Amino acid sequence: MHTPRTIAAGVCLATALFAASAAHAGVYRAPRTHDGQPDLQGIWTNVSVTRLERKPGLPLIVPRTKEAAFEKAAIWAFMHITDDPFDQRASEWQPEYRAARIAGRMRTSFVVSPADGRLPWRPEARKAYEALQAAIPTSADGPEARPLSDRCLVVQTGPPMGNPNSAGGRQIVQTPTEIAIVSEMIHDVRIVRLGSRGGPRRPPHLPGNVRPWMGDSIGWWEGDTLVVETTNLHPQERLHAGFIISPDARITERFTRVSATELIYAYEVDDPATFTEVWRAEMPFHAESGPLYEFACHEGNYSMAGTLAGARREEADAKAAGQGAH
After folding, report:
1. Sign of the C-alpha dihedral, residues 63, 68, 73, 74?
2. What are residue 244's phi and psi, to 5 degrees?
3. What is the C-alpha separation between 301 and 57, in angstroms, rounded?
4. What DSSP string describes 130-154?
5. Which whole number is the average pLDDT over 311-317?
6. How far apart are CA 150 and CA 298, in angstroms?
7. pLDDT of 143 higher than 50
8. What is the pLDDT of residues 61-91, one digit of tens each?
């Protein structure tokens, strides 16, 4: 149970962390595009061994004397994932990823609020998430029963953006009125609409009955920080890496370039149907020379037919074994 004192402490911690990020950003002025916007363009990656949530009892920031031991254990855990239903763990050919650091300090989780680094689930929502996760390995009644990633439609690329185990590159491209975020994972392209010069600072959201993949994202500038608000989430895009969100959630993201090679990405999820309070996370993105590699996934891919055919064969074998027992 959260007491008033622990809630206040969590608020103070989150405020201090975001203030620290702002102060870190204040010593660096991002380059400008031809129309005067802070230039966020380039290829960035946030792949690391740091996870969304924190293990109970750990502080957010790793003491310097324990950084080496913490990172070694985190790398081992990353290379030996045990709860992946697809067995898509990191491979030996991948580079050795490191733990995430912000302002030079190692983080134990991306969640910064609540202060304990744990998602503030509503009990019924947590059960729904666990049921969805448990159903993934065996859901094969038809293509619609498989996760969106298997169908090559969209794959947990955000918002909010998590850190995948591989194919973690994202390219940002800017125009005066739009920003495109291209994901290496399944080559999703997310468009953020910006306010126009001489017009409203924020463009209006789409009507509530229009719910595209990745939601409806609008953006505006607060100093050197790009603020993006996303609503109108697609009801089928409920499952994310480590959590679920409802179609009526509101996600607010902040992108701040703090050096020539680093961008701080912070976000908050406001979803009363799923969580008891707004929760916040922040993570670093680092510049990459690129390029983004082709992610050859397409709707109607051969693996889908193989998955469904395998399920039908298992059903037939089970039926035959049952008949043979009589």
Report:
1. positive
2. -120, 160
3. 44
4. HHHHHHTTT--SSGGGS-TTTTTS-
5. 88
6. 9
7. yes
8. 999 999 999 999 988 887 776 555 444 555 5
Q: Per-residue b/e over 258-267, b at no fewer than 16 CB within 10 Å?
A: beeebbbbbb
Closest by Cα among 96, 59, 58, 61 to 76: 96
Q: Provide the percentage of residues in the chain whose pLDDT is more than 90.
A: 53
Calculate the average pLDDT of the chain: 84
- The C-alpha atoms of residue 13 and residue 290 are separated, in whole angstroms, by 36
If you search the block for the tokens 């043979």, which residue do you land on? Answer: 324
How do strand 101-102 and strand 105-106 relate by DSSP bridges?
A: antiparallel
Measured distance CA(190)–CA(89) in Å, rounded: 26
The Cα angle at residue 104 between residues 100 and 106, in degrees rounded to 5 = 40
- Taking the C-alpha atoms of residue 5 and residue 2, their distance in angstroms, rounded to an integer, is 8
- CA distances 108 to 83, 88, 236, 249, 281, Å, are 19, 23, 31, 26, 12
| Bridge partners, 244 (sequence order) | 239
* CA atoms of 140 and 312, how far apart (whole Å): 9
> Of 50-54, 95-99, 127-131, 217-221, which gets the smallest average pLDDT?
95-99
Q: What are phi and psi of 189, to 5 degrees?
A: -125, 120
Residue 117 burial by Cβ neighbours in a 10 Å radius (0-12, 13-18, 19+): buried
For the stretch 273-289, pLDDT in tens is 999 999 999 999 999 98
Cβ atoms 53, 115 nearer than 8 A: no
- Nearest-10 Cα torsion for 64, 65, 69, 71: 10
- pTM above the 0.70 mark? yes
Q: Structure tokens of 263? A: 């961008």
